[in-house]
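Appendix C: a fully annotated inverse folding record. The material below is reproduced so that readers can follow the format used throughout the book. The structure is listed first as tokens, followed by the designed sequence.
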């Protein structure tokens, strides 16, 4: 099962109630909002990292209305098909507010597997929301570049719209484990961009090859979203586009009574081929 490790000395961290401690004497207090901060980057204790509270709240509102449920269903289906039998430790590397993490963990438990689920994200606002969604999740503020998780301890690594670090993912996956990755395809949210920008653009094609991994399955999930103005605003605010767009273009969307846009996702399942890629 996934076990947290000390970001200082890489020894196991033990849950001591109000804090996590390692045999090397390092101690990390749990936040009241349900996560532990293991991010040792410069300024990590005070500087905001990752998605802010507005983006997190908009994402929770939008996802809870079921607009991405076809994507969630495909991710769950892939997890049920490929998760190791019996014990299926789950790590979500970039868990955000826990929508996918909690649902995949619940589906695996319902299938009879013994599941321990860990979510890692840089955003403390997102981790607080993930704890509210599912208090059973073990949540840590940390970078996926350096996961605070023990070697060969995970049966499944999830990466949903998050940066991919193949060497780290291979390190934490045990033999027979799988990586399930979800990415936006070229026309994802093109209608949204057409409503906001004078010259909308396609997303770049997703890179499929990952060092140390073999792609074993691909499923594309494509459908049309029909949103009212409030739903469209929540969608826009949960994306990076909102923060990269000037006020004049932001206001274009706010004036629309409704929006129709494409949703297009690729769900890629990988088998680990080596513990240390390259």
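Designed amino acids, in order:
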């Amino acid at each position: 099962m996934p076990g947290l490790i000390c970001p200082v000395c890489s020894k196991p961290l033990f849950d001591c109630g109000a804090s996590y401690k390692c045999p090397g004497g390092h101690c990390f207090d749990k936040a009241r909002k349900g996560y532990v901060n293991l991010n040792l980057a410069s300024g990590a204790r005070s500087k905001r990292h990752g998605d802010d509270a507005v983006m997190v709240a908009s994402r929770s509102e939008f996802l809870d209305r079921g607009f991405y449920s076809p994507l969630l269903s495909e991710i769950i289906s892939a997890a049920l098909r490929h998760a190791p039998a019996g014990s299926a430790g789950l790590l979500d590397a970039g868990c955000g507010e826990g929508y996918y993490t909690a649902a995949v963990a619940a589906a695996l438990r319902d299938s009879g597997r013994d599941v321990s689920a860990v979510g890692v994200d840089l955003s403390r606002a997102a981790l607080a929301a993930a704890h509210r969604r599912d208090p059973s999740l073990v949540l840590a503020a940390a970078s996926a570049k350096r996961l605070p998780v023990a070697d060969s301890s995970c049966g499944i690594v999830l990466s949903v719209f998050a940066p991919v670090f193949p060497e780290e993912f291979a390190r934490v996956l045990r033999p027979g484990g799988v990586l399930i990755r979800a990415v936006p395809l070229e026309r994802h949210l093109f209608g949204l961009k057409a409503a906001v920008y004078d010259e909308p653009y396609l997303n770049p094609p997703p890179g499929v090859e990952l060092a140390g991994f073999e792609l074993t399955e691909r499923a594309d999930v494509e459908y049309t979203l029909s949103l009212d103005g409030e739903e469209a605003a929540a969608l826009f605010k949960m994306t990076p586009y909102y923060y990269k767009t000037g006020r004049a273009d932001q206001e274009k969307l706010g004036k629309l009574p409704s929006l129709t846009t494409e949703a297009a996702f690729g769900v890629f399942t990988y088998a680990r081929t080596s513990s240390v890629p390259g």
